[in-house]
Amino acid sequence: TGITRQRNYQVLVREFEEINELPFPMEGYAPYVYPLLVKDDSLRRKVVENKIYVPQWWKYLLEEVPEDSIESTLSKWLLPLPVDHRYTEEDMRTIAQIIKSYL
Predict the structure, then answer these.
(1) 22-58 as b/e: b if 16+ CB within 10 A
(2) If you average pLDDT over residues 30-57, what whole number do you get?
(3) Residues 42, 60: contact at Cβ < 8 Å?
(4) 75-86 as b/e: b if 16+ CB within 10 A
């Protein structure tokens, strides 16, 4: 439900407030995913190895836009973490712990 997604999202807001490099405040929101932006070449692979689904959005843009563009940055580094009703707040803390263990 929307309430579960909002709670899960807020757990990740708190967990990643010192790590997330996105340039806008995220308190009070509950989008479809939690958008974690961390510039680490191996993080996506490590997260996927832990069976956490994080798609790479807009991958085709990497060949079409300058490397220093916001589009390239988002495609390369954004980890859209799941926050939907299938997950609990404890799941969110586990996901955060896994990610933090690699950073």
Answers:
(1) eeeebeeebeebbbbbbeeeebbeebeeeebebeeee
(2) 90
(3) no
(4) bbbbbbbbbeee
Residues constituting the chain: 103
pTM exceeding the 0.90 threshold for the entire prediction: no
For 2-8, the CB contacts below 8 A with 24+ separation are 2/30, 4/84, 4/85, 4/87, 5/30, 5/32, 5/83, 5/84, 5/85, 6/30, 7/89, 8/34, 8/83, 8/84, 8/87, 8/88, 8/89, 8/91, 8/92
With tokens 């973490």, the residue in question is 81
